[in-house]
Design goal:
331 residues, 21 strands, mainly beta, 4-stranded antiparallel beta sheet
Length: 331
């Protein structure tokens, strides 16, 4: 019976922390906002490799794993909102994104999924796309990069972990060493009953996470221009960017949908691409792509406002390869 009161107690404690710590924030200048954006690079080609260590008894670690995150493309949803597409490779952290799309394995058994994120250039706020049944364009505020105040507080949900309890963050900025470079770092603390800390570094993004029994550290970083930084202890990193060996057509999302959905596919090389929608009688009802495209991940928005409810087939031809999947429109 007593355990039924725990969620309310934890929420109450978090509210007390917020009330105790809350301070007024000052409007940020354009210069300060532009500087804040440097703490969260999301350009295509940006690549992070992390080492995660889990331990039961200090100082010995019981398990060490590696995972990578790479910005592989940009995409635009049907409502006109632009996002960066992040590919997670062998992600093993317990801090899950708010919405995962196209999860699966490659031919070597590596786990892969994708997450859509964007940074508002005017407010330096970071959002993740997290569609719901009622709102296919719903997004979650995961961070606010505003700097200029030594200690300040925001309401955001960095991970889909203890949503509603750990949503208030406290941070301060100071200098630190990252890959033998002195850069500015923002230290963030989730104000919940479970202490969680993470750090963002200027020019590098997320560099570390700390939780009781878990440590995650950035060991390799490559920026959008191809400049690579690596921890000298990990010159031979076990993680390599996942490169498709053939045409890949992913399940549309959301599915079922009404009336818009997104179709993603991956090209191993530049080629001519035709992407079209057919009804079950074989009649073409829409053509979404017809032309040459570069290698990599591509996402196309499909608006079925003019179509009736039912099952449709989306078919892609890239060079000599042809793939097709079904999707369901419910109105």
């Amino acid at each position: 019976m007593a355990t039924n009161f725990l969620p309310a107690i934890f929420s109450f404690i978090s509210l007390l922390l917020l009330a105790y710590c809350a301070v007024p924030t000052n409007a940020q200048t354009t210069e300060e906002t532009n500087e804040a954006l440097e703490f969260y690079p999301l350009e295509i080609g940006t690549y992070w490799v992390y080492r995660q260590r889990i331990f039961d008894d200090l100082p010995q670690f019981s398990d060490t794993t590696y995972y990578s995150i790479e910005v592989v493309a940009d995409t635009t949803l049907a409502n006109g909102t632009d996002y960066a597409v992040l590919r997670y490779f062998n992600y093993s952290s317990g801090f899950d994104p708010h919405y995962i799309t196209d999860s699966g394995e490659d031919e070597y058994g590596n786990d892969i999924f994708y997450v859509f994120e964007r940074v508002n250039p005017e407010t330096a706020e970071v959002f993740q796309w997290a569609p719901t049944e009622d709102d296919p364009f719903n997004e979650v505020l995961v961070d606010s990069l505003t700097i200029g105040i030594p200690d300040y507080y925001i309401t955001a949900e960095r991970w889909d972990w203890l949503a509603g309890i750990d949503s208030t963050e406290c941070r301060s900025a100071f200098e630190t060493e990252v890959f033998d470079q002195t850069v500015e770092k923002i230290r963030c603390q989730l104000l919940s009953f479970v202490p969680v800390f993470y750090n963002l570094a200027k020019g590098f993004g997320l560099i570390s996470i700390r939780l009781v029994g878990l440590e995650t550290d950035l060991i390799l970083f490559r920026d959008a221009d191809g400049n690579e930084f690596i921890d000298p202890q990990h010159v031979n990193t076990p993680i390599e960017p996942e490169i498709p060996t053939g045409l890949v057509l992913y399940t549309n999302y959301p599915n079922p949908f009404n009336p818009t959905t997104n179709i993603s596919y991956e090209l191993p090389e530049a080629t001519d691409v035709q992407l079209a929608i057919f009804d079950l009688s074989g009649r073409k009802v829409a053509e979404l792509q017809n032309g040459r495209q570069s290698a990599g991940l591509h996402t196309v928005a499909f608006d079925a406002s003019s179509l009736s409810s039912g099952v449709y087939i989306y078919r892609i031809q890239a060079g000599n390869e042809v793939l097709a999947r079904k999707m369901t429109l419910i109105k």
